[in-house]
Amino acid sequence: SGMDSMPGMGSHAGHDMGAMAQAPVTLAEGEGLRQLPLLANEAGRPGLFQARLTAEAATARFVEGQDTPILAYNGTSPGPLIVAYEGDRVEITFANRIAGEQSTIHWHGMPVPADQDGNPMDPVAAGADRVYAFELPEGSAGSYWYHPHPHGRTAEQVYRGLAGGFVVKAKADPIPAAYGDTVLMFTDLRLAADGSMPDNTMTDLMNGRVGDHVLVNGQKNPKLAMARGAKRRLRLYNATNARFLRLAFANAAMTVIGSDGGLLEAPVVAEEILLSPAERVELVAAFDRSGTATLTTLDYDRGWMGPGRPTDAGLTLLTVDVSDAPAEAMPPLPERLRPIAPLGAPTVSRRLVFTETMAMNATGMEMGFLINGKAFDMGRVDIVARAGDTELWEIVNQADMDHPFHIHGTQFQVVERERDGKVAKPPYLAWKDTVNVARGETVRLRTRQERPGTRMYHCHILEHEQLGMMGIVDVQA
Ligand code: C2O
Ligand code: CU
Ligand code: CU
């Protein structure tokens, strides 16, 4: 739709390319995979998870002898992994020690009350503390995460290091404990020669920031040792600002067992997995052949404005050394994991059209990332909904890029996707809070908000969210 012919586009993008053309800094690879540090539960009694998360400036060593200034939760990036159980009450004191910046903690995908969800309208001032308190309902087991959501600063706070995993465990878990349970959190790093993280460029704002290195738990291509015949439960998190990860596992077999909001009904064998920004997938990887198994990326064209589309073919994210010695026999995956009740017939339907606009004005390029022709306004309610109603949301992507669509406060079910007049049902029923809407595609989903209050919905390319591709649904009791 004429994006390339916009006046001024070339010069801006060209200016960016100067900075981006610097050879990326080389990072060490092949260290042992680090488990994310666990956030310790300080509560003295069962059923309660109590802890403190402090966001503040820290340094990271990506390159020997060079400190990179980052933002971290409790000193680490990714932040500490929170593991709690269905039925638990959670009380987390957030201390914002980021100099001069407001922040929040948003509990991505979790069924928390609206006023505990770290929305942009509930900022925590620099230097202030606040307690987030919520219960984890029965049936809420899943792979969630937490990240800042302050107005206008989310993208930068996340790419500087603020994001962590939140695993809610089921009391009765059908996945054999012998598979272990490992979180692999993908983040995206751009590092300048002096060890700093460069600010976002115009190209980053348009496309979302895509860095030079995809990291796993903060490491580049770390190593994991497995015995032949072993199976490992892996929770993959795309915690990047804007990178689409199309993943394949060479020399290992992948079986998808869960999505954003917990287990599927039954395991599904997968050759490859597309994980758009903010999505998660739970899988069981089986290592049946000795030698090296590698988790790699395939190229995926998610649409790109201006020159310099990164091609991600053949990046190795994780290397698994599979020994010759056989593992102890592992129990098989159950054939049924749990029932998922389909959301019923919707009583309301809505249409959300995603577009991008570009215009030159006196101060330079003006970009708009819009939903139904509007940019986000914190003082405006875009949708009024009723708690408990099942709604059909039709997300229409008329833009030149894919936009991963996310709704706060609930999990939804994708019913179908339409492209060029062809309608396709998803291969299986799943609870999702983020779904990629490819350019030219329409995704229809059923969603139900159980709790009243103000909820955000937005594109999870964080630069787009920040540039306006976000709206507010006011859920009434
Ligand atoms: Cu992951 Cu509105 O957020
Ligand atoms: Cu969210
Ligand atoms: Cu977007």
TrEMBL record:
Tree of life domain: Bacteria
Keywords in alphabetical order: Metal-binding, Oxidoreductase, Signal
One Pfam family linked to the record: Cu-oxidase_2
Keyword Signal: yes
Residue intervals of the Plastocyanin-like domain: 58-172, 205-287, 360-475
Gene3D superfamilies reported in the protein's UniProt record: Cupredoxins - blue copper proteins
InterPro entries: Cu-oxidase-like_N, Cu-oxidase_2nd, Cu-oxidase_C, Cu-oxidase_fam, Cu_oxidase_Cu_BS, Cupredoxin
Protein name (Swiss-Prot/TrEMBL): Multicopper oxidase family protein
